[in-house]
Write a structure and sequence with these properties.
It is a single chain. The chain is of the alpha/beta class. The chain is built from 18 helices and 25 strands. Helix 3 crosses helix 4, helix 10 packs across helix 11 and helix 15 packs antiparallel against helix 16. Bound molecules: zinc ion. Zinc ion (ZN) binds next to loops.
């Protein structure tokens, strides 16, 4: 664990009074429990406010930031004071585009491999997971990583073999599947399970599943049908949010799933768009949802009568919920894509309903069709106040940015090219976009084709270097300040909650992250290793690292 030798006891053991002394001796509010107050002192607190204020102390009361520096808060007996001893603090990371709901609905005891940088790392991660789950329980990784991560730059990328996975977890079946549809690999216990399916899922002696994506599709389907219960989904949902908190992600804007078919054609990104949120809502009802979730609804109607989108707009409430869970917009698809897709019709329908739209773009054809469709909708029902977004946007150009900006729109940028990008398949043009001044924010687009870890995305945005240590996005790097701002202050806009989230300012919801390392000072490669040692959501400590 990186750090400066600060022990857990030292970090969390500071007593009230020692830090603030006389300044805190003011009357207490007897109505509230003492635990409602949290005070952090002696930090380097990057508020990310408009003046880039760096504060030394912050106090939190009733779930919101109460004071910064200056006048000390009115402390009560039992209020918790934490001496940060110079640690770097940043606002809670807002991931404005990801698929945490899919991650929460994975079969088995899901274990992210996005931070593994060798086969040995994979083995260590799987072995640690095996120790923490029941003997015989499935350990799975479905999406969020690339085999490029697992070997040195001069070696051929590969997944771990059956023998390597057996060495890590002999008593637990293991299934590791890259991206949407593989390649995939398993160990001996997994191979035995797949061999019992009818017909059997082919597994080679080396553990490789297949050949072909259909075999991976069948393997994933068999695991879903065998393992997933509502309680298992709830466990997965809780673990997905908890994983994010260890990275400092406090708010997720989920962008939906491809509607599942319950066939082998379903990949990692398929789920039921009508029920997959329920495990998260159940956690919320029990007061056990530890991070904030915002929900977009994904629709891909192929015909101009737009049956599912029409139903959604008729029967759902936009921006409805509370500070922990709230509905968002329609996205990351509002209709099917392609020359004959009813994109403009869908955009007009969403505009007429006054909803937010968000679509993804992987090619110039995508964003040109989408921005033109947005303009057509705007011609009928103005969208300038609705904050419509185009996500990912590799290859986007200044004229198209200007057209989107004229509509009051914004772009969501991700560093997913970190995993497998090349100088030809690179982008997005971070610097062009930041310089343009259009509303922009960073996101992960995890957890199928990209990692959730925001520090990997900030690494890529600031260096342009991919997982093979190859410079692929030269000329479009941005500064660390810019990258962090895109992941915090600028992302409030995407939620329509910039008054409540994104910066550490008095009155805002108290979400912050104490970092293991100084983000602004560490060498580039070290950025990837940054973790949270303490994450606070709404004034509640929801993650504490064992340091
Ligand atoms: Zn996405």
């Amino acid at each position: 664990m990186p750090g400066d030798g600060l022990s857990r006891r030292e970090l969390f053991g500071a007593a009230l009074g020692a830090a603030f002394g006389a300044a805190l001796r003011t009357p207490v509010d007897a109505q509230r429990a003492p635990s409602d107050e949290l005070i952090l002192v002696n930090g380097r607190i990057h508020t990310m406010d408009a003046r880039n204020t760096v504060a030394r102390s912050v106090s939190i009361r009733n779930g919101r930031f109460a004071t910064l520096d200056g006048v000390a808060p009115a402390a009560r007996p039992g209020a918790r004071v934490i001496d940060l001893r110079g640690r770097t603090v940043v606002p809670g990371i807002i991931d404005n585009h990801n698929h945490v709901v899919l991650m929460g609905n994975r079969p088995g005891h899901h274990v992210p491999l996005e931070n593994a940088s060798s086969i040995a790392d994979v083995q260590e991660t799987v072995a640690a997971r095996a120790k923490a789950v029941p003997r015989g329980a499935w350990i799975t990784t479905i999406g969020g990583f690339h085999r490029n991560q697992f070997v040195p730059p001069d070696a051929t990328p590969r997944l771990p073999t059956l023998a390597e996975l057996d060495a890590a977890a002999r008593d637990n079946p293991v299934y590791i599947s890259e991206s949407f549809m593989g390649p995939s690999t398993t160990n001996s216990a997994g191979k035995a399970f797949f061999g019992r399916q009818t017909p059997a899922v082919a597994v080679g002696d080396d553990g490789s599943i297949g050949p072909g994506p259909q075999a991976t599709g069948r393997a994933t389907l068999a695991l879903r049908q065998t393992l997933l219960t509502f309680d298992e989904r709830k466990r997965g949902a809780s673990e997905a949010m908890t994983y994010g908190l260890g990275l400092g992600v406090t708010t997720h804007l989920d962008q939906g799933a491809f509607q599942r078919t319950n066939t082998a054609s379903d990949g990692a990104a398929h789920e039921d768009n009508y029920t997959m949120h329920l495990p998260f809502l159940a956690l919320r009802d029990e007061g056990k949802l530890p991070a904030r979730l915002r929900i977009n609804f994904l629709h891909q109607d192929a015909t101009p009568d737009l049956p599912t989108l029409t139903d959604r707009l008729r029967h759902s409430f936009r921006f409805f919920g509370d500070d922990m869970v709230r509905t968002g917009g329609i996205g990351e698809f509002i209709a099917g894509l392609g020359p004959n897709a009813p994109f403009s019709e869908a955009a007009k329908l969403v505009a007429r309903a006054g909803w937010r739209a968000e679509v993804h773009s992987l090619t110039p054809t995508d964003f040109q069709q989408e921005i033109a469709g947005y303009e057509a909708a705007h011609g009928e029902s103005p969208i300038t106040g609705l904050r419509w977004v185009v996500a990912h946007v590799p290859f986007i150009t200044e004229p198209w940015l200007n057209r989107l900006r004229a509509l009051g729109g914004g772009v969501s940028l991700t560093g997913w090219r970190y995993l497998a990008g090349t100088p030809e398949q690179n982008g997005p043009p971070f610097r062009t976009i930041v310089n343009n001044g259009i509303h922009a924010g960073l996101s992960s687009d995890g957890m199928q084709i990209a990692p959730m870890n925001p520090w990997l995305h900030m690494y890529y945005a600031t260096t342009g270097v991919n997982a093979r240590q190859r410079l692929v996005n030269d000329g479009q790097q941005i500064t660390r300040e810019q990258a962090l701002k895109l992941y915090t202050a600028d992302n409030g806009w995407f939620l329509r909650e910039e008054r409540d989230l994104g910066t550490i300012e008095v009155g805002k919801l108290a979400d912050l992250v104490v970092l293991s390392d100084d983000y602004f000072a560490v060498p580039d490669e070290r950025l990837k290793k940054i973790r949270s040692v303490l994450t606070v959501v709404g004034g509640r400590i929801v993650h504490e690292a064992a340091i």
